[in-house]
Write a structure and sequence with these properties.
It contains 15 helices and 14 strands. The protein is α/β, with parallel strands linked by helices and 454 residues long. Strands 1, 2, 3, 4, 5, 6, 7, 8, 9, 10, 11 and 14 form a twelve-stranded mixed beta sheet that branches. A two-stranded antiparallel sheet has the order 12-13. The termini are far apart.
Length: 454
């Protein structure tokens, strides 16, 4: 039974604490679209997406209006395109045509992003995987709504260092291809270790091959709500702090569960998971860095920040799993620098460095996310950054990711303005010492000993 106090509390969360449902994402399998003819493949893809997701945006808007909770984004994720395009695509240009078909479908249904221009190469690359990877710079330059993700490693298989080297190069090429827009293409490109099949957040969402024909996954976000709750227990014990975060996460997840179930019913699509990820926005007060500040840090990045983030991530998960039987995706705390105004500020004054961010990724829910770096950063250095992050994920049996933006023509200290949810920040310096000899070794880093559990 919901009482008046709970209604008032939820209204307060929405009106002044930035509570929202960050995304309703419909996952759609494209396996039955596969055909050897490229034109037929593109037509099949367009038809399936536009038929299944034709009401996604309108239903999301209706639910938001009826229950009074903002539903910020409506998105689609699809089967990794490297799999779907394998019979028909024989060149990078063919995969660009697939990306164009996905773009047309996304424009038709009105979603803000479509994810799944992806390949899973954690143990090796097929010819189709390599063609898709080679097509990424052109595909992301030519489209507006398409997001690309590449899986480079896992705890079970190790890290494909050949693919890591190539992806460092593709990040640079994508930056060059979109240099007239502050290299924005790189904001739609992420690499993963241990990716999940049901992640509703971009740029990493894809519809895993173990999923059904279609599914509704919802991502809920409430950094402002958690910050307000934490501010009320300033100076109290860690036990009190943890209980406060956990209880707040429970309330936020219940909102997500309600929206997910209603979207599932109205769209006649099975409910998948609620992803409780505290995903910030550039809006004032909607910040992970602000939560860390309320926990006792002068600025995010100060000594103690990693421990504070570990507390936050763990208690968010504990609260979430008590609120829904199907919590999944990445559930935790995101630390995207450009998308978090207070985190961007901490980086601009030097309180938060790339190395400190890497340490924080050991305990957060994703990894090095939305970090602008100098445009002349060598591809081998980017590959080294990727390798470090993949190693953290592989050894710690967690999802990690890298989404860095080498902004062509700009140097450390310059500003980048991407707009909207992608935000803005100053460009962070990168360690100037090289790692090319390491990256160029080739082959695969083997899986850790604890991966052998059969």
């Amino acid at each position: 039974m919901v009482d008046l106090r709970e209604v008032i509390e939820t209204n307060q969360m929405v009106s002044s604490e930035n509570l929202d449902v960050r995304t309703i994402t419909m996952g759609i399998s494209l396996l039955d679209c596969m055909t050897p003819d490229l034109d037929d493949l593109c037509e099949n893809i367009y038809a399936k997406i536009t038929e299944n997701a034709k009401d996604l945006v309108s239903v999301g808007d209706e639910i938001a209006l009826e229950i009074g909770i903002p539903v910020i984004n409506k998105r689609v994720s699809v089967t990794p395109a490297a799999i779907v395009g394998a019979p028909a695509c024989h060149s990078p240009e063919d995969f660009v045509e697939v990306a164009s078909a996905l773009e047309r479908a996304s424009q038709k249904i009105g979603v803000n992003f479509l994810g799944g221009f992806s390949a899973l190469v954690q143990k090796g690359m097929t010819a189709s995987d390599r063609l898709l990877i080679d097509s990424i710079p052109q595909a992301l330059a030519k489209t507006e709504h398409i997001c690309s993700s590449i899986s480079l490693g896992s705890t079970k298989t190790g890290i494909d260092m050949d693919a890591v080297k190539i992806m460092g190069e593709k990040v640079v090429e994508t930056a060059q291809a979109t240099k007239d827009r502050d290299s924005i293409g790189c904001a739609k490109l992420v690499v993963f270790c241990n990716p999940t099949d049901d992640n509703p957040f971009m740029a990493g969402a894809f519809h895993g091959v173990t999923e059904g024909d279609k599914v509704i996954n919802v991502g809920v976000s409430g950094p402002g709500v958690v910050r307000t709750a934490v501010s009320k227990v300033r100076g109290e014990s860690f036990e009190t702090l943890c209980e406060t975060i956990k209880k707040t996460a429970f309330k936020i997840t219940r909102v997500g569960q309600l929206v997910a179930k209603e979207a599932s019913r109205r769209l006649d699509t099975p409910f998948g998971i609620v992803d409780l990820s505290l995903a910030p926005t550039p809006a004032v007060g909607d910040s992970i860095a602000d939560i860390i500040h309320e926990m006792g840090m002068e600025y995010c990045g100060a000594p103690g920040t990693t421990a504070a983030l570990a507390i936050l991530n763990d208690q968010v998960k504990k609260g979430g799993i008590m609120a829904s039987s199907y919590v999944g995706g990445l559930s935790g705390a995101f630390i995207p620098v450009t998308e978090d105004a207070s985190m961007a500020e901490a980086a601009s004054i030097g309180a938060l460095t790339l190395e400190k961010l890497e340490a924080m990724t050991c305990v957060c829910s994703v990894g090095l996310d939305m970090i602008a770096i100098p445009g002349d950063t060598p591809a081998s250095t980017i590959s080294g950054i990727i390798a470090d992050e993949m190693a953290i994920g592989m050894v710690n049996q967690k999802t990690t990711a890298v989404r860095v933006i080498p902004v062509i023509g700009k140097k450390a200290g310059d500003s980048i303005e991407l707009g909207g949810l992608l935000g803005n920040a100053k460009i962070m310096p990168v360690n100037p010492y090289g790692c090319a000899d390491f990256v160029n070794r080739g082959g695969r880093i083997p899986a850790p000993v604890h991966s052998f559990k059969n």
